[in-house]
Design brief:
This protein is 39% helix and 16% strand. The protein has a single domain, classed as TIM Barrel, CATH 3.20.20.140. By secondary structure, the chain is of the alpha/beta class. Strands 1-2-3-4-5-6-7-8 form an eight-stranded parallel beta sheet. The longest helix is centred in the middle third of the chain and has 18 residues. The protein has nine helices and eight strands.
Length: 265
Amino acid sequence: MFDLIDIGANLTHDSFDADRDAVLARAKAAGVGRIIVTGTSVTSSVQAAALCATQPNRLFATAGVHPHHASDFDAHTATALRPLLANPHVVAVGECGLDFFRDYSPRAAQRRAFAAQLELAADVGKPVFLHQRDSHDEFVAMLEPRVASLVGGVAHCFTGGPTELDAYLDLGLYIGVTGWVCDERRGADLRAAVPRIPLDRLLIETDAPYLLPRDLPAKPQGRRNEPQYLTHVLERVATLVGQPAETIARETTANAERLFGLGSR
C-alpha cells in the first residue's frame, strides 16, 4: 500500500457535495493518506480550512486567490487571508499566479493580486501554490526578484516542456504533475519534461475534480476526477522516470512533507 499525498484537490467543489466522505474513503483505500485542499478564493479557502478541521493531520489546505478571481482582490482580501494563513491546517498561500489563457480577470488585476500574495507569503513564512498558464515569461519575471524572500513553492499542475521546467527549477520550485501527463492530445511536452525533474523536486496531484486521466482503464460516470486516481498518475510518472512506483511514492511524499511542513506520520 502506498502512502501518497495529493498536493492539489479542489474538494470544496460542489461536485463533491453529495459524496465527499465516500470520496475521501476511496482515496484512503487507494493509498492516498493525505490531501491538500486547494483554496481559490477567500470563500473557498474558508471552506477548505473548515473541511480540514474535520480530519486534522489528514487534510490540509491552501488559502489564496486564483488569477481567475483576481478582480476581486483588494485590501480587504489580504486582511481576510491573514487569519486563514495563521490556521494550523493551512500550509500554503495560493492558488495564485497568472492565467493569460482564459483572462477571466484583467491582466493588470492578475499582476496586482499575484504580487500581493507573494508579499503575503514572504511575510507569513509559508510556501506558494502557483498557477501559470500562457504567461510563462511574465510569471518568471514577477517571481524571480521575490523568490529569495519565499520559503518555497510549487508550480502546481505543471504542463510545460523542458524549457519551462528548467526555468522553474532554477527558481527553486517543486514541480506538481497531474493527469495532464496521461493526455495523448496535449501532454507530449510534459511527458518530455518529466524524466528531467529531479526526484527531490517532484510532486504529484490530481487537481480533482478536473483533469481525469484520459488513459484511465475504467472511467467513472460523469468523468469526475478524484484523489483515488492519484495512483494512476504515480504509475504513469514512474514509467516515464524509469523508477519503481514505490520509489516515486516515497520521494514525492517526502517532498510534500518537506515543502509544506507536514512532518511524517
